[in-house]
Amino acid sequence: MIEAPIPANEPNRLLALQKTQLLDTPLEERFERITRLVCRLLGVPRASISLVDETRQWFKSFQGSALTETPRKVSFCAHAILCDEILLVADATKDIRFHDNPLVTGPEEVVFYAGHPLRSPDGSRVGVLCAIDSKPHDFSDDDLRTLRDLAALAEAEVNATTLVDTQKELLSQLDAERRRALIDPLTRLWNRDGIMEILTREYARAMRTKEHLGVLMADIDYFKRINDAHGHAVGDAALREVAKRLLASFRGFDAVGRVGGEEFLVVVPTAPGNRNIEAIASRACQHVGEKPVATTAGHLSLTISIGGVDETVDFSCNVDELIKKADDALYRAKQMGRNRTFVVVADSVPSDQAEYA
User: Fold this and answer.
1) Which end of the chain lies in a sparser environment, N or C, as judged by fewer CB atoms within 10 Å?
2) In sequence order, what are the residues at sequence separation of 6 or more whose Cβ sits closer than 8 angstroms to the Cβ of residue 335?
3) Strand order in 46-52's β-sheet?
């Protein structure tokens, strides 16, 4: 294995990476969307957006793998940030730089790799958009053009404002260690402490502005049966996929967190009522259940139940009461047959959404 040399502009490159404020942050749908497109358009099972830090590569998004980071010294991306264009490795087992790399010989089986560097505004290469497979590939000119186009989209997102409003404010106030402590290691959503901090801040903001605040509680239906029948590894894979589908169902400024084994809490700021939050919850319920989840035990059909509340924040309620109302609504949704939503909107009739097949 040949380790990549350190770029000549390494201090400036690391500074540019830090300025993105992306390291050790939760999954974001804007990046997930791009890596899904890489898999779909280029016919590869894995794709990632990798940020190359001082001693590690950290994945802002990764389809087809549960990895969150690897040592920089074994990273293909450490080589890719040295390139002006795409680093294409058609068969790593025959490449002197990578043939004995643990990412090639180990369980990840990285055999094919195509990585396009992602630049910061000053031109520093801070990360890479990657297409990955466990078998050799030949990329056509059209494939290379597609990867370049998708990398341009990824680069624009890297350099755009990161997580908005309350989430951005919270992350900007924390060091890397504290940020990591607020992220669920399995799903890479906010964990209980993280989502509660966001809810508390959104509650305070809504109190000042007298705006609506929505809180949703979501639970995977009959999840215990999956763990009992197939084991926790399959259950974990199912949880990760449900988390990604939930994330894709909500808006960029909504916050999604995992608060229990198979339970999620969603903060929906400035939800204007008029059944809009009900439509948001309904879409999430439908999106999770619309197709089976692929696991090592086969394709599993999963559904969720969602309960929620949406009301103007004032001194008549507090954060704990909002959560209790959402939890009570979730219980009602389960009582009504599961795979459905029940959302209480202030000054309107509670929603009993139709069941989704």
Assistant:
1) C
2) none
3) 69-71, 56-63, 46-52, 125-133, 112-119, 87-89
Domain ranges in the chain with CATH number 3.30.450.40? 10-161
Residue 355, φ and ψ in degrees, nearest 5:
-70, 140
Q: Cα–Cα–Cα angle for 198, 190, 24, nearest 5°?
A: 110
CATH number of 167-352: 3.30.70.270
Clarify whether 262 is annotated catalytic.
yes
Mention the CATH class of domain 10-161. Answer: alpha beta
From the first residue on, what is the mean pLDDT of each consecutive set of 10 residues in the chain (357 residues)?
Answer: 94 92 91 97 97 97 95 97 95 96 96 96 92 95 96 91 63 78 93 94 87 91 92 93 92 89 92 66 90 89 93 81 92 89 67 40
Round to whole Å and give the CA distance between 165 and 332.
Answer: 32
Question: Which residue among 197, 202, 262, 278 is the active-site one?
Answer: 262
Q: Where in the chain do CATH 3.30.70.270 domains reside? A: 167-352
Buried-state track 124-145, b at ≥16 Cβ within 10 A, e below 16: bbbbbbbbbbbeebebeeebbe
Tell me which residue of 88, 81, 79 sits closest to 112, measured CA to CA: 88
Instruction: Give dist(CA 292, CA 301) in Å, integer.
Output: 4
